[in-house]
Prior knowledge:
By secondary structure, this protein is α/β, with parallel strands linked by helices. It is built from 25 helices and 22 strands. The strands form 4 sheets. It has a 7-stranded mixed sheet with strand order 6-7-4-3-2-5-8. A 7-stranded parallel sheet has the order 12-13-11-14-15-10-16, sandwiched between helices. The protein has a 6-stranded parallel sheet with strand order 17-22-21-18-20-19, sandwiched between helices. The protein starts with 14 loop residues before the first helix and ends in a 7-residue tail after the last helix. The structure holds adenosine-5'-diphosphate and magnesium ion.
Amino acid sequence: MDWLTDITYLKGVGPKRAELLNKEIDVFTIKDLLYYFPYKYVDRSKFYTVRDLTTELAYVQMKGKIIKIEEHGQGRSKRLVAKFFDGVGTIDLVWFQGIKWIKNNLKIGQEYIVFGKPNFFRNGTISIPHPELETVEKYEARTVRGSFQPYYSTTERLRKSFISSRTISELVSKALEIVDNIPDFMPDYLIERIGFLPLSEAIKNIHFPQNPHKLQLAEFRLKFDEFFINQLSLIKQKRLRTEKTAGYVFEHVGEYFNRFYNEKLSFELTNAQKRVLKEIRRDFKSGHQANRLLQGDVGSGKTIVALMSMLIALDNDFQACLMAPTEILAQQHYKNFIELLDGLDINVKLLTGSTKTRERKIIHHQLLTGELQILVGTHALIEDTVQFKRLGLAIIDEQHRFGVAQRAKLWQKGKIPPHVIVMTATPIPRTLSMTLYGDLDVSVIDEMPPGRKPIKTIHVRESGRRRLYNFIHREIAKGRQVYIVYPLIKESEKLDYKNLEQGYEHILAEFPPPKYRVGMLHGQMKPEDKDLEMARFARGETQILVATTVIEVGVNVPNATVMVIESAERFGLSQLHQLRGRVGRGGEQSYCILVTKDKLSSDARKRIDTMVSTTDGFKIAEMDLHLRGPGDIFGTAQSGFPFHFRIANLSKDGKILQLARNIAEELLQQDPELVLEQHQLLRREVDREIKRSPWGLIS
Ligand code: ADP
Ligand code: MG
């Protein structure tokens, strides 16, 4: 039977079950089912002894006797501990629930087969919480035993209809029996060169591994497959774009650029900034549309590079726009540009959600006539009514806040797409940028402007709050300003978040007017009020700004030297890093103070320790990816993290991804259009991926 056959042709799958499988786990064909991989395996072929146990083992099976049973603790922490001796050593079996029943049924001296997940403690104790237990007699009476058992994830609806992990495993087993041919898209020469399992063998072993080694090989092959198809499609699209998509040519650097450089720029560009500008200029001259990611830590000076790129567009009679993720940021860019460009006679305007109708009309009009040269704004820029005469360059600030679809919309504003530069301050780990931005060229500003003092980061527990306030008093006395950031706006009954309003009251009591002036800023305020509040802080009229994370990106107040983050354990690493970047922008020593409750989970402790020990955005990003996984960093729903891998894991399989990318590049070098005979099946997979991918704009 062909593996593309509908799942209903499988024995044991009627219309009702088929519908459930469709809806719940996206399984329509036998192939889909075979690609529904187990999420774990349980090795029940092997018995471990205490000596064999290592922290890498997820589940173990052991044989031995219970030698002692004790109850420990009181109330909630009450637990039953059985000492289990396997002839080599002793471990603890622990129960927190059903204590009474277990106690009555466990027999000291009886031989048991124990199965579960071992935990290791610092004092050398190993324990298995809530193990599966079976007497040796029972175990030996069972007919089916040994080998790896696959476990499949199920949903509540599936379970209610009696489709359990075991049911799925039986269906897969049947499917493997009746499929007579699993076509392998991987060319033979690669299978040989890399030593891959053939696809059919990989699929068999991913479900029913013959042994651990085969399982490893199967995982490797299938992970590689996912990355490989992904990279092939990204690189192919990038080639298509650079080779086939015409782009405007900005021939020369003219008066705007030169006058700005000679008369306005008050500092020397860093080498990194110069290098990146060169890369951008090369794009502009290539005749192909540029799609460049400009990556640089907070404060590394991306904005100047963006502005100077825009001036080149203007020098060539094109318009340029800059899109920022928030109103505050758009405003700040706008004001910054107005100041920087003063006297150069350039028409710059701001368009946001709160731009008045009259002004809006003028903007629309001037965009069409070409009078308006630089438009700064929020996502209001991508509304259909906004039409340019000759948009040559679109810059997007803080990319990860924009959906991929929004980006595409900007591209579609002219017949020939404008050059696009995406700026991000989120240092993206290499593995991620390879997939997320695989079709973009990447420039990195990896050098900070000179003369900055590194920010000191300090962890303060609730119990040290008094000292924290004393410190803030001293900083303010020196004329400095302070941000205090809270994680939530509205009180949530369930969560004990320190909410902003409460925090504000608290700060007011500690720093009372008229001696102190405290402002408050949050996302639910009207844009005008937000701007007013921000402006007052920027002018130094308020000394303390109590805020939510609305100040996270871009805001620039050089005199602010203290960033206090309340309930810092609630924030992700990237966010903490972004917030820290709000200070350290002037010449004074700056501080980031992470306030947490006294007791921390181990994950929270790792985050805080990372922040205290490094200011390197890339290190922090790697750690973040490691701790949270890629979906979380980019907030899948919000930013449309575009790739979903079934088996490959971006935070763990970086090496496989790198290999896949290298081989994909090599292969496309030889056969750019995938026309060779031995690449035909591969080509079909790649085309399917391109169609599915949000980047499939060109084909
Ligand atoms: P980013 O957008 O990368 O976070 P900005 O472009 O806002 O950083 O730059 C941060 C600050 O550093 C700004 O005040 C900017 O004027 C200044 N700056 C940028 N480049 C340099 C440089 N080469 N030398 C000195 N100061 C610089
Ligand atoms: Mg910025």
